[in-house]
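lol forgot to send this yesterday, sorry. struct tokens for the thing we talked abt
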């Protein structure tokens, strides 16, 4: 993901391949987070989930 966002910063947008890679990575992160839902406070889970979703959203946006 770091490479994808570095490329986005340089080129202004992500390539289709990078967007797909970020989507897959964030899906995997959300699945992993869900598997640990009982191991953390609800507020931490919600914050982590929102952060991961914000990564996916940000990847779809051009650099301003």
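and heres what i got for the seq, position by position
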């Amino acid at each position: 993901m770091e490479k994808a966002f570095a490329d986005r910063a340089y080129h202004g947008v992500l390539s289709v391949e990078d967007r797909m890679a970020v989507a897959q990575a964030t899906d995997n992160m959300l699945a992993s987070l869900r598997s640990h839902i009982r191991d953390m406070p609800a507020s931490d889970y919600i914050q982590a989930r929102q952060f991961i979703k914000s990564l996916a959203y940000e990847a779809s946006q051009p650099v301003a």
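The chain has a mean pLDDT of 92. anyway ping me if u want another try
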